[in-house]
Amino acid sequence: MAARRSGNRRLVPMVDDRAGDCPGPELTILYDEGCGLCRTAVGLIVLLDRRGAMRPMGFEAAVRGGLAAGLEPAELRRSWHAVDRRGRRFSGGAAVAPVLDALPGGRLPARLARLAPGAVDRIYRAVAARRSSLGRLVPAAVRDRAEHALRRRAGGGDAQRDG
Questions:
Q1: pLDDT tens, position by position, 3-27
Q2: What pairing do the DSSP bridges indicate for beta strands 27-31 and 11-13?
Q3: Are 16 and 1 in contact (CB under 8 A)?
Q4: Which residues does 74 contact at the CB level (< 8 Å), separation at least 6?
Q5: pTM across the whole model
């Protein structure tokens, strides 16, 4: 993912702004289907997404479906990604605001995330770096509920899990 220098000389994540329109949901969330915390987080987002605006998709399915075009495997696995209908890809902390925008009641939190993109990305990176240990702290009931939401959104399959 590209970055630019902000006024305070810090790197701020940028968006891959490819042109064109993609059919399908408002956002497709690309995530590491082998990561328990990632599956739980995306499953909880799906639970909150009452409009069905987002489609979860594991990295392997994204590669097969062309949504990971232009990303090296290491770059793909480094963070989650949200791809909108126009084909724009938001990665890491930069994906937080678009995901919040698509959720009911998420516009204000999305606006706040856009006001401090560097801070959001640092928080995202800190969580991502500790995802194995943080994943163990998630209660089984929460993981199960999130997993059920992923399966239900995938139409009874296993939420694009390739494992």
A1: 444 444 444 444 444 444 444 679 9
A2: unpaired
A3: yes
A4: none
A5: 0.79
Least confident window among 19-23, 100-104, 127-131, 152-156: 19-23
Contacts with 120 (C-beta within 8 Å, 6 or more apart), sequence order: 93, 94, 96, 97, 113
The pLDDT tens digits of the residues spanning 53-88 come to 999 999 999 999 888 888 888 889 999 999 999 989
Instruction: Please state the three-class secondary structure of the chain as a single string.
Output: CCEEECCCCCEEECCECCCCCCCCCCEEEEECCCCHHHHHHHHHHHHHCCCCCEEEEEHHHHHHHCCCCCCCHHHHHHCCEEEECCCCEEEHHHHHHHHHHHCCCCHHHHHHHHHCHHHHHHHHHHHHHCHHHHHCCCCHHHHHHHHHHHHHHCCCCCCCCCC
